[in-house]
Give the backbone structure.
Amino acid sequence: MHDFKYVDKELYCEEVPVKKITEEVGSPVYIYSSRTLRNHFNVFDCAFAEIPHIVCFAVKANSNIAILNLFAKEGSGADIVSGGELFRALKAGVDPQKIVYAGIGKTEEEIAYALKSDVLMFNVESPLELQKINEVAGKLGVKARIALRVNPDIDPKTHPYISTGLKKSKFGISIKSALEEYQLASTLPNIEVVGIHKHIGSQITEVGPFVAAMEKILNLVSKLKESGIDIKYIDAGGGLGITYSEEKPPLPREFGAAIIPMIKGLGCTLIFEPGRVIVGNAGILVTKVLYLKTGEAKNFVIVDAGMNDLIRPSLYDAFHKIIPVEEKVSEEITADVVGPICESGDFLAKDRKIAKPEPGDQLAVMSAGAYGFTMSSNYNSRPRVAEVMVDGDKYYVIRKRESYEDLVRGETMLGDQI
Ligand SMILES: *Cc1c(COP(=O)(O)O)cnc(C)c1O
């Protein structure tokens, strides 16, 4: 469900015509629906109403502070993977006691920052990281609350680049050595063991892998209990998929129905770290057609947004629906929709059947709310695009389009230093 729809052949976000936004803000532009965002958050949150739980939105999916602030107001916490994300979450008003911190390469500075901010817990990814957290906490005279990120060796049946819970993955601690690591953790003077964490991958469209991973985790939780280690927080990670094309991922309610009975009665608080499922379909990227070109073997629709603005098609071979901002009758063509970047991998769609557009027409790249803007870059010295949030019949620029001056901010030429 989302709030992008046609009214009289014109695409709207809630009550605002998309074209009104591009006329005033320019193109390309990311547009998010605040109604969809709130709705998605609450549907997910309500799916677990029966049991004590915290929803920690995965900041890396979309880190604009307006979005983090919107979720914080709905009661969301944050799943962060860097000091920068911690800064954003705090700035946006997220309660530190609802912030969980994952990531395999936390630096000493980042660990200290998180300890001083009193985040709920660190999701620890390796034995040496655990030692480092113990050491930094000791220096600061505090105790660090931790969960170990356990790798349950479950195949999430998704793209290999977004599978994170297999044996060969760089993430987490193998489930085989987890018990031993927990015992060691519980002897460290500046560490308080409070939880267990897993995150097996992203864009997962079946309940099965989640249930299988949870079974393994719960098995470990009961072994830990036997050895005197009580787990307060079970962090189930993120990963629930969305519909980009024809996928039929489980609804949050169905997801909840599978997981709740496993957790109920354990006396634990369940944590979730959803990213994509909350923001993915709440955002679009609007782009303008610059040129049409007929190659020897293919048609190309050349647009003003490229892989630097939305890298998912290039990086993961991801599919995004592309629809016209103004519907009109025209012949259907098969074309690659490509950006202006000097890379063959710069495309938004390949061999796509679309209504033949004309230069100047606008296209909406759907389901671009997750891993869209956050993965964008300045490659080819392209200023990053504006972000807009719609609320009813109003819209707000929540990130200004970058200028050429922004591109060189912080750069100096030799000799200019003094
Ligand atoms: C990326 C990530 C998430 C969010 O994943 P989604 O598929 O967007 O729900 C959650 N937790 C961790 C540790 C992650 O790395």
User: Anything to note?
Assistant: Residues 4-31+280-408 form a domain with the Lyase, Ornithine Decarboxylase; Chain A, domain 1 fold (CATH 2.40.37.10).
